[in-house]
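FORM 12-B: Structure-to-Sequence Request
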């Protein structure tokens, strides 16, 4: 009986850990991060909707990212979203042009 109880506890722990991992992945998949700056071996990113600061090791980033790059989390890793990066940069440029016209 002790063996069955022990197995039951282990299964419950695995279920809880799996749910936490799934929740973490789902949250990451909904995020859109912009790289604010680099400090040593870390990229300081900002979640675009919540403004929360997130640190990501450079080794975990795709090649070609730079300050202002937009990142998404897909297939278990961070991806550079070149299209969103261009859209955001164009929006910023347009806002700057509008500000100078006034």
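FORM 12-B RESPONSE
SEQUENCE OUT:
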């Amino acid at each position: 009986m002790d063996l069955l109880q022990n197995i039951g506890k282990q299964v419950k722990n695995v279920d809880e850990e799996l749910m936490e991992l799934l929740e973490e992945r789902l949250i990451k998949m909904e995020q859109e991060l912009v790289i604010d700056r680099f400090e040593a071996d870390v990229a300081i990113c900002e979640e675009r909707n919540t403004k929360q600061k997130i640190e990501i090791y450079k080794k975990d980033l795709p090649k070609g990212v730079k300050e202002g790059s937009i990142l998404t989390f897909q297939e278990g890793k961070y991806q550079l979203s070149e299209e969103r990066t261009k859209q955001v940069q164009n929006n910023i440029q347009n806002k700057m042009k509008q500000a100078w016209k006034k």
